[in-house]
Amino acid sequence: MDFEDFEIIDVDEIKEALAHEDLPSAVGKIKDYLEQQDRVELNIAITGESGSGKSTFINAFRGIGDENEDSAETGVVETTKVHKAYPYKKYPNVKLWDLPGIGTPNFKADEYLQRVEFQRYDFFIIIASDRFRECHAHLAEEIVKMHKRFYFVRSKIDANISAEKRKKTFNEQRILDAIRKDCIEGLERIGVKSPVVFLISCFDLPLYDFNHLEETIEVELPQHKRHVLMLALPNITLEINERKKKALEKNIWKLALLSAGVAAVPIPLLNAALSLHVDVSILVSELSKYYDTFSLDPASLQRLSDTSGKSVKELKAVMKSPISKEINKEMVIKMLAGCSFVAVDTVAEYFLGFIPGLGSLASGSLSFATVYLTLKHSLDWLAKDAHNVLVAALETPV
Ligand SMILES: Nc1nc2c(ncn2[C@@H]2O[C@H](COP(=O)(O)OP(=O)(O)O)[C@@H](O)[C@H]2O)c(=O)[nH]1
Ligand SMILES: [Mg+2]
Question: Which residues are found with C-beta within 5 Å of the ion, ligand 2?
């Protein structure tokens, strides 16, 4: 047990949660909170000219290819005039909306926004794949007028780079700067203050500004929406990997209290006299969530293999954690029983200091501490595995 295992704990948050309640009612509240957290709605509108790469962006942002059965259709001539929702599979309340193309001859931004029911969306992503145009300006202006937020994305950067590479004077940074400048000036002309433009290639998201885009959206979202976006997003950069870990860490003490606080089944410990009272299903579902959010599930590994050129076997070879196999009840019970007694004791003692009544729970502080440690270590392991998988995928073959 290292001291750093405690650093993730927001003691004030725990004290605050328990300040006006006895433990059973606090546990009830924590249960509601966790359930609601996963049900938060988030609606993201993706708009831009036809052919700008909206549908491709939607697939990439959902971590799927362009040819899955529920992918947004790409590369086709857009005829549709309706907006269509693409929910995340594991978080169906988080939806990306494919909006009809803008910039058609009679395009009117205000009518367009009414037609796509603009109130629904938490924010808009405007995608341009070429120069900044009048239709972008009109739309951005109108979105702001409706008191909504937009993020301006310039897509297909890879195509610009490879076209310019043919020139003798090729300089990547200069091209990126010029593209950015064109869009920024366009936005400034309509009065946007300090506009930010995100350069992206949907064919290679980790390059360029994707990370910055994701981080900016996250910071600007209300707290309760941040968490679900963070979990839903595919794990595509080392920075996102780290932020996912931080988001999940915050829930560990809540889950431990919940698991130890509800009518739980006794699990005998190897060293006899004591038994734990733990709701194992809470752990099974949380650990499965870790897998999914770190994109370590078979479908995500396959997709990473397709895009990186590394075989699934090569990617799996760098997953070293003891739990990099299937998650089930038996395996969780084994982990709980295998927790070091000394470490559990240290954690229990630490928490007894500010969770009044913990010792009096039927299951007691021992169960709480064991679940806490099991989740904490599993999260550390899986985040590390995911980190290694990303690094392996990025490595160029020798
Ligand atoms: N090179 C490159 N092509 C892209 C990118 N994004 C989309 N495309 C291609 O641009 C075309 C139009 O994309 P699509 O997503 O269907 O555009 P939409 O009409 O806005 O939905 C397709 O052939 C895509 O493969 C990108 O980032 N880089
Ligand atoms: Mg489309």
Answer: 55
- Report yes or no: 365 and 348 within 8 Å, Cβ to Cβ: yes
Ligand 1: residue of 46, 47, 56, 139 to mutate (most ligand atoms within 8 A of CB) is: 56
Average pLDDT over residues 354-377: 76
Per-residue tokens: 85 = 């929702």
d(CA 89, CA 293): 12
pLDDT, one tens digit per residue, over 265-297 is 666 655 545 677 788 888 999 999 999 999 998
The predicted model scores a pTM of 0.88
- Could you say which ligand is closest to the alpha carbon of residue 50? 1
Q: Which atom of ligand 1 is nearest to the CA of 58?
A: 15
Strand partners, 278: 265
What is the atom index within ligand 1 of the atom nearest the CA of 49? 20
Domains of the chain by start residue, with CATH = 4-38+242-394 (no CATH), 41-234 (3.40.50.300)
CA distance 54 to 283: 38
For the residues 62-87, what does the mean pLDDT come to? 85
CB 46 within 8 A of CB 58: yes
The answer, yes or no, to whether residue 33 has pLDDT greater than 70, is: yes
> What is the Å distance from ligand 1's center to 208 Cα?
17
Pairing of β 123-128 and β 150-154: parallel
For tokens 């395996």, name the residue.
Answer: 331
